[in-house]
Amino acid sequence: MGIIEIKNVTKEFRVLNRREGLKGSIKDLFSRNYKTVRAVDNVSMTIEQGEIVGYLGPNGAGKSTTIKMMTGVLEPTSGEILTNGIIPYENRARNAQEIGVVFGQRSQLWWALPLVESFKILKDIYQISDENYDGMIKLYSSLVDIEPLLHKPVRQMSLGQRTLSDILAAFLHDPKIVFLDEPTIGLDVSMKSKIRTLIQALNREKNTTVILTTHDMGDVDALCRRIVIIDKGKMLYDNDIEHLKSFFGSYRTLKIRTGGELKEQAESIKKELPDFPVTADDEWISVLVDEEKSKVIDVLGQLQKSHKIKDMQLEEISTEEVIKKIYEEGVA
Amino acid sequence: MKLKKYLTLTKAGIMESLQFRLGTFVMAVGNLLYLIVVYYLWKAIYASAGSDTVNGMTFSDTLIYLVLATALFNFMEMYTVWEMGRSIQSGKIVLELLKPMKYRNYLFWTYSGQFVTNFFFTFLPTFIVVAIVTHGAVHMGLNLLFFIISVIMAISLNYSINFLVGTICVYTESIWGINIMKQVIVLLLSGATIPLAFFPEPFRTITHYLPFQSIYNAPLSILLNAHPEPEELMVTLGTQLLWCIGMAVLSKLFWKVSLRQITVNGG
Fold first, then answer.
1. Is residue B267 in some structural domain?
2. Residue B200 included in any domain
3. Closest to B5 (Cβ–Cβ): which among A106, A108, A127?
4. Would the pLDDT of A332 be above 50?
5. How far apart, in Å, are the Cα atoms of A219 and each of A180, A184, A312, B101, B204?
6. Number of domains in chain B
7. Which of A65, A108, A125 is most worth mutating to test chain B (most B CB atoms within 10 A of its CB)?
8. Domain that holds residue B239
9. Phi, psi of A288 (to 5 degrees)
10. Among A residues 156-195, those touching chain B with beta carbons less than 8 Å apart
């Protein structure tokens, strides 16, 4: 049996149908005109102890709603959820003892106090023994440089430092499951990689199950072996990331800006690179490169011989594109 | 061991409120200004009444009552409705719901640090000044013990009422109006701004059947009555206890029902 078992879970919300304008707003005061929105539609999955699962989907897909049901904040409209063998929404406090959460831009830390005080408060709330607490702090110092953070009031931290601290706080009581809801949102590249390394290390050391929701395919690539994709409340994909990759190849988009007329340049590049799909918009010429067949750097080198490249960008394939492709072509 | 889980939140609250030294200072000054206004207002009322006692209370009786009521208000008042409303609106409540304890307890104990700082920074100084200036208007005897018991029940009752009103935010997702309405009703009907003796007869009878007078009027009347009839004392404390239990049960039930309604905003 998995650490998280979800069976045919559906969650519906009742929302008032709002009318437009001032007159509509006044009418709405007395309205009984509700519509039912199905945020999560018949989702099932089993997650094993120690897995890192990437939970993907566009905004409003139902990711956070699923997580709130797994943590026990929301009660499913129908279906069954078991985490650690208990029903989360009926045993919220007991379930909370076994899970940790980081919600992207919200902090659970005590804003006015230095980080170490937040840790001590959490130590008492979760009734962590001195031994385990010291062990955890020792582990943390071996993974990241926390000394300067510990004595800094949380409100004076940068977003990156705060997110890092929030992740450490979520793991502090050695929970069985940690939910990370868009942990790298708004962070710079070096902080992102720092956080990915940290999550990976903690997962390995403590065998903690990690459920990660994100828009950043980079997070998924670095951390997850398994991904679940959801859109409009429905599950689209639940399998290995390798499987998805073999389907998509490892595409990256090379975007360049050259001197001269953009359209002409694009045409000549198309002739030069007959094997690659080339598109052009107002600003960029995009070349889709399958990294299994040829390297981006080689393509760039080839282009540089014949064109004056002023600027370039490299883009990963985005969750949105993955979903679009799944819709169009389907994944077995 | 179990209590430590909660007391650590009290400690955090004390530490947090001490971080904002200027805030404490400004509050003390604001409090002083309020008391000056109260002094002149009631001086004018007594002057226009043309007699030394109004409704059985002399000017100094009234003033002592109101100064202590203000001190008690500053000590006991909780901004729970506000906190809950903001948490629900912003969606931050999700993190509070995920603490390994009941939300009702978490919120209370998070706030409890304020009681400690407010007690030492506002209530105690005011109490000492009143005791010295009035030369024994406040009797120092067994009534202090009953006063403490009464205040503890008042805090619990006040919290239940706040929590009950705060829960309404789950449905309305707006706080301002609800909070102001609660504030006005409690302040008026509890005897925190006007001694209940000044209310016209039918109105006063009504207040005695409402829970609010158990918050401020009850502890203050115990404190200021040096030699109460045992029977009277028991009635006051007993009424408080009943309201305490009743409101606690009611607010817990209402929360339990409302929690299923919660949608949790954002993200």
1. no
2. yes
3. A127
4. no
5. 11, 8, 23, 32, 66
6. 1
7. A125
8. 2-261
9. -85, 120
10. 181-182
